[in-house]
Specification:
The complex is a heterodimer of chains A (about 450) and B (about 140). Chain A is an alpha+beta fold. Chain A has 9 helices and 20 strands. In chain A, the strands form 6 sheets. Chain A has a 6-stranded mixed beta sheet with strand order 10-9-8-7-6-11. Chain B has a single domain, classed as Jelly Rolls, CATH 2.60.120. The chains are: A alpha+beta (about 450), B alpha+beta (about 140).
Chain lengths: ~450, ~140
């Protein structure tokens, strides 16, 4: 493993700017810390085989909030790296990539590295700006000054997603006027009922806007930005009224998101997707266009899976991609190194209770709804075999023996319910189970539904 | 086709269903839709599976496969998925990328609001649907 950073911690060595994460860890939860079930309540700890290295974040947080601070998250990652004995060469920057026969060569500031399978886990933390006249003079979120330096200033923030609202929240007691602008309306997570949209922690500026309290949340495109002496003039145009508004402000900040520093990979044929040009990936996080090139960490958000009902995966956060990483390792081990994963037998008499226990408590299914699934296969010799947690899309599209994939899903109304995807002679059928008010699906009604779905398949 | 276009707004402006929109309206639409990439042979929509979406093809080509038969081919500027979303039913066909495919996607639950917010796009879609219906009627006559 090589890293350009001087130590473990990744982007948390610098961000979030206002120091608290959006991902929580509940020290006190219905399950014992360190258990698999507890992971559902801990979004920040990495996964460890060794019991003592599980739920590490709970040992680091100081109890003042269930959102860890930036230094606590950095320490969480550094402690994991130290305990797990990860061999990392820090201060080693990847600069270029090339093929050499069957191997890949990574050119770095520390010489060349050769490998059979590269995994690029370089994060989504490189500032990204849209094309816009005048934006080259505008600092990015990454270059925001200390909050007190905005005292008495008029601040224009381009972007109405979490990073824009995070800055606005931090400026509330300092700035004289805050304008948040982007072409489409702000989405709030409490309305989308997902992690899409501005999280509840950052809704205060929106309330100030609604109450006309010195914050303006504007749906308008930014036409151009001019310097006006020490100030800026931001020219905006509303889409609906076709009206122009010009704001003279002291500071403009581009809270326009981040991209991934994938360097020369596009020149090697790696296709990218979306405004921030992340690498397009298969369900197993391999480049969609260059076989053998894999990605890790938050870049997994560009492998969207089925996106049923428009609900995204949580692969942009530790709580989601930590499970993808485990599958990625297993897949690479099998595909490139011939290491077959363990596939334990599930006694037929226990299949129904196992399925319902999984949809009730499996953290992989709760954190990655409609994205990861527990897969059980019918093996003519061994009986029912547990194929592990796998990407749901790979099950639905990939073919294979008769089997079932079990996932949790959420519909447009916000109901959470289990779904069984059965595969019989290659044909996929979807069986939706009813929701439960306490999300405990170990009921007679659910048992009957699972039996009906799996009869003649696994039962 | 390798990389995402620098400016989706420019691409949208060149598609028939967005031909009546002003630049700010195009920008709003570009912010509302999400771009997706599908490798050749990858399935985009799946017959019989719930939770689909509305897709507009930016680049590439897709096959409409119903009952195992290829019944149509879709290309740049064409759209699909609206029937299952509007009727609240699962798709009646698979859509499979026959060449690398780049689409803009709108989650099904947002389609109604999108059409009401953009009546000129809604009108263009209606015209396209009418054309499809006329072609089907002609073929079956």
């Amino acid at each position: 493993m090589i890293s350009a950073d001087e130590g473990a911690g990744g982007m948390f060595r610098r961000w979030p700017f206002f120091q608290r994460l959006l991902s929580w860890t509940k020290p006190y939860a219905p399950f014992e810390r360190g258990s698999r079930e507890y992971e559902r309540y801990d979004w920040n700890s990495l996964l460890a085989e060794d019991q003592k290295d599980r739920a590490l974040m709970t040992t680091i947080m100081d109890g003042t909030s269930y959102y860890p601070s930036r230094p606590e998250m950095e320490r969480n990652l550094a402690t994991f790296a130290e305990h797990a004995g990860l061999a990392v060469r820090y201060g080693c920057r990847w600069t270029a990539t090339r093929r050499d026969g069957e191997r890949w060569v990574l050119e770095t500031t520390d010489g060349e590295y050769r490998c059979q399978v590269p995994i690029f886990a370089v994060g989504v933390a490189e500032p990204w700006r849209p094309q816009m006249p005048g934006i080259e003079d505008v600092p990015h979120y990454a270059n925001t000054r200390p909050a007190e330096s905005y005292a008495g200033k008029r601040v224009f923030i381009i972007g109405k997603e979490n990073s824009g609202f995070e800055l606005a929240t931090g400026f509330l007691q300092w700035a004289k006027l805050i304008v948040l602008a982007s072409p489409s309306p702000a989405k709030l997570s409490i309305n989308t009922r997902t992690l899409v949209g501005v999280r509840a922690r950052y809704v205060q500026p929106y309330e100030d806007h609604v109450l006309a309290g010195g914050v303006i949340v504007l749906d308008a495109s930014i036409e151009h930005i001019d310097r006006a002496g020490a100030a800026f003039r931001v020219h905006t145009r509303k889409a609906d009224a076709q009206s122009d508004l010009v704001f003279e402000v002291d500071d403009v900040i581009a809270a326009t998101g981040f991209t991934s520093p994938i360097r020369d990979l596009p020149k090697l044929g790696v296709a990218t997707v979306g405004r921030n040009k992340l690498p397009a990936q298969t369900p197993f996080w391999e480049s969609a266009t260059v076989p053998g090139v894999y990605f890790g960490g938050t870049i997994h958000q560009a492998s969207p899976g089925l996106r049923k009902h428009g609900i995204p995966s949580n692969s942009g956060g530790v709580n989601g991609h930590r499970y993808n990483g485990r599958i990625l390792a297993r897949n690479i081990a099998a595909k490139h190194f011939g290491v077959k994963p363990e596939r334990p037998v599930v006694p037929r008499a226990e299949v129904v209770s196992y399925v319902l226990a999984e949809v009730t408590n499996a953290p992989e299914l709760w954190h990655q709804k409609a994205y990861l699934a527990r897969v059980l296969l019918r093996d003519e010799k061994r009986g029912v075999v547990d194929d592990g947690i796998l990407p749901l899309q790979s099950f639905v599209d990939g073919g294979g023996p008769d089997a079932v994939a079990v996932s949790l899903e959420e519909d447009a109304a916000g109901d959470i319910y289990p779904v069984l995807y059965t595969r019989r002679a290659g044909l996929i059928a979807e069986e939706t189970l009813p929701p439960h008010p306490l999300h405990d699906f170990r009921t007679r009604e659910h048992e009957r539904a699972v039996v009906a779905a799996l009869e003649g398949l696994l039962l | 086709m390798r990389s995402a276009p620098d400016d989706v707004t420019e691409t949208l402006a060149s598609l028939a269903i967005f031909a009546d929109l002003s630049r700010p309206e195009l920008e709003r639409v570009a912010h509302t839709l999400e771009e997706r990439y599908f490798a050749q042979d990858e399935r985009v929509l799946r017959e019989g599976l719930s939770g689909s979406a509305f897709y507009i093809i930016l680049e590439g080509e897709a096959a409409v496969i119903a009952g195992g038969q290829r019944v149509n081919t879709l290309g740049r500027g064409e759209f699909f998925g609206e029937i299952s979303v509007l009727l609240g039913e699962t798709p009646v066909a698979d859509i499979v990328a026959t060449r690398p495919l780049r689409c803009l996607v709108l989650p099904g639950k947002l389609l109604q609001e999108f059409l009401q917010t953009n009546p000129r796009v809604c009108y263009r879609i209606l015209v396209a649907e009418a054309r499809k219906l006329a072609n089907v009627t002609r073929r079956s006559a």
